[in-house]
Amino acid sequence: MSLISVRDLAIRFKTDEGLITAVEDVGFDIAPGEVLGLVGESGSGKSVTAKALMRLNGGNTVYGERSTITLTADGQSTEVLKLKRERDMEKIRGGAISMIFQEPMASFAPAITVGDQMVEQLLIHTKLSKKAARDLSIEMLGRVGIPAPEKRFDQFAFEFSGGMRQRAMIAMALSTSPKLLIADEPTTALDVTIQAQVIDLMTDLVTEFGMGILFITHDLGVIAQTADRVAVMYLGRIVETGTVRQVIRDPKHPYTRGLIDALPKLEDLEAELTPVPGDIPSPLNRPAGCVFHTRCSIARAGHCDRVTPEPRSLPDGHTVACHYAEGLPATEVSA
Amino acid sequence: MSHDPVIEARELYVSYPLGRTLFGNKSYLNAVDGISLKIGRGSFFGLVGESGSGKTTLGRALLKAAPISDGEVFYRDDEVSHDLREIEGLALKDYRKRAQLIFQDPYAALSPRMTVRDIIAEPLEVMKLTRNRAETDERVREIAAKCRLNLEHLRRFPHAFSGGQRQRISIARALVSGPRFIVADESVAALDVSIQADVLNLLKQIQRDMGISFLFISHDLSVVAHVCDHVAVMYLGQIVESAPTRSLFARPRHPYTSALLSAIPSLDPDAPKTAEKLEGEIPSPADPPQGCKFHTRCRLARDACKASRPKLREVAPGHMAACHFAEEFDFTRTAAAPAPATTTA
């Protein structure tokens, strides 16, 4: 039974220039205790997708008519996109689903102590007394490896170092015991040494708390070390999904292959770095057919620029949205 | 590559006053704490370290954009040589032409109100390097072409460009005055992976074709490994290790370098988890640890490390390290989890 199930998700924004499509035909499932990595470059729609799970996108957002997001927790199913009242959404935001952001300094209020912010959300989402909420918060700060948590509880975010702030953010997100944790580039702003510590901490906590995690990042190395399954996004579409090993060892979509080839690898210092040619098109000007055809080395004119490839399951169990995932058409090979 | 360095620093300090102590003694923060280095002509010199290690301050001091508090820095090319400590007036103007900077964030570095042509032409106009508009235009077009920007691009404003294209504009602006030395400060950190490789290849091509020397500042060791021929690792204002790239990555001689390398997440999901995790965070440069600055986080630290600060010395041919025990430890990178050197009799 999936914890969260997303089907046919389409997200458009009303702007002065008309409707802009940010996300199209996105679907995925996350089971309890599973980490799904969502990879993609800036502008690929990763964050917009994640925010949709908590309905955090702005007032100009239009969701697709067939789009559904089903959250199943404690034997109860909720259709997230059907929620109308703010009061109902509050149960999800910070309750069933918590989120960790990229820049922890921007996520804490600067003039309220870290402790007060942790207690505040516990009072909203749980039935704990103020005293119990304080005790739990201090306990959580200790759990994520912050030394002298009683002292830190009364400090402000600016008194914490970068790594410490991200730990506090994690402690805060987990203290309400969410069923799903959304981590949006949680290690991107951190140094590698601190990133390694935070990744370890998160992997430990998943095992301990058994929640599902949607882990968003542009860093394939981070994904390889944390996720069970991966979904690769490009221009608002998921182009490839599979287990971490399938996608990283045997990528089937030309975009995923390009991303891996573009990564500088320590194992092979002589290898040329091969960029994916061209630039990501503007969302105002989405390519017709396959969204990736403008940068794809195997795109075939007349087909890829007209027909949108549907996600298909391959024999090895992973899913790819490419006409030529199993090679180029036979007619061309024989010709 | 000529052996004459384009930049040579000896015991360089950049210090900022922190105020006075109770007894009126001034205290200082040494952002750059006695660094000596040579950047060879035409070399691609990498500088790595965590945030707060002083990489950017060092880069700026070499450009005479941060105050040099003590020590010596010399710049030399075929035409001139400058003593950066004393430099001012016309000589400084001359140096500005010869040494340039490429910034990290191409979204913040370009004025949104200027066309790309005007952005690239500005250094020429400010430094009065061309006689008339026609000459300026020709120079701009020539440099733009090198950075793969076409005539159509020159008429537009920065907002019309993607991150990778903007960084190519920043590079063109840095190149237009004909520099011999460029500091690239985290110049690909803000770019997506698929674009990053493109900008790195362009920088390498510029170094090869135009013989420009680069100081490439980055926190990303795998990027540095791919583009640089020499790498220096900084920690709290000091260089802890400096070596040719292959030598540094094949066998790091400082525990900090080795810890940095093992912290890079591997692309292989089944890679053994390295035991060597750095505990804690970089201490405040205002109050650096006594002795070896790294001893508070070093899993191999002994009493000697707390007592005296190790000097940067040659521990293998061309390979410098500042660790009391650099010869004893073996941090070969092929061993995924470098265990403390066990004595096999």
Structure characterization notes:
The complex is a heterodimer of chains A (335) and B (345). Chain A has 335 residues and is α/β, with parallel strands linked by helices. Chain A has a domain at 109-177. Chain A has helices at 46-53, 86-92, 104-107, 114-125, 130-143, 149-153, 162-174, 192-209, 220-226, 244-249, 254-262, 330-334; strands spanning 4-15, 18-30, 35-39, 61-63, 68-73, 76-79, 97-100, 180-184, 212-217, 229-234, 237-243, 312-313, 319-320. An 8-stranded mixed sheet of chain A has the order 7-8-9-3-10-11-13-12, with helices on both faces. In chain A, helix 4 packs across helix 5 and helix 5 (130-143) packs across helix 7. Chain B is α/β, with parallel strands linked by helices. Chain B folds into 2 domains: 5-228, Rossmann fold (3-Layer(aba) Sandwich); 249-321, no CATH class. Chain B is 30% helix and 23% strand. Chain B contains 11 helices and 12 strands. Chain B has helices at 55-62, 89-98, 116-126, 133-146, 151-154, 163-175, 193-210, 221-227, 245-250, 255-263, 303-307, and strands spanning 5-20, 26-40, 44-48, 70-76, 81-83, 99-102, 181-185, 213-218, 230-235, 238-244, 313-316, 319-321. In chain B, strand 4 and strand 5 form a beta hairpin. The longest helix of chain B is centred in the middle third of the chain and has 18 residues, at 193-210. The radius of gyration of chain B is 22 Å and the shape is globular. Chain B starts with a strand and ends in a 24-residue tail after the last strand. Residues 333-345 of chain B have low confidence and may be disordered. Classes of the chains: A alpha/beta (335), B alpha/beta (345).
- Strand tally of chain A: 13
Q: Provide the spatial order of strands within the biggest beta sheet of chain B.
A: 6-7-8-3-9-10-12-11
Span between N and C termini of chain B?
44 Å
Molecular shape of chain B: globular
Mean pLDDT of chain B: 89
CATH architecture grouping of the largest domain in chain B: 3-Layer(aba) Sandwich
Q: Summarize the biggest pleated sheet of chain A.
A: 8 strands, mixed
Helix content of chain B: 25-40%
Oligomer: heterodimer
Q: Estimate the strand proportion of chain A.
A: 15-25%
Query: What is the gyration radius of chain A calculated from CA atoms?
Result: 21 Å
Distance between the termini of chain A: 48 Å
Which runs of chain B of at least 5 residues are low in confidence (pLDDT < 50)?
A: 333-345
Low-confidence stretches of chain A: none
Gyration radius from CA atoms of chain B, angstroms? 22 Å
Output the strand order for the largest sheet of chain A.
7-8-9-3-10-11-13-12
Global mean pLDDT of chain A? 90
N-to-C series of helices and strands of chain A: EEEHEEEHEHHHHHEHEHEEHHEEH
Number of strand elements of chain B: 12
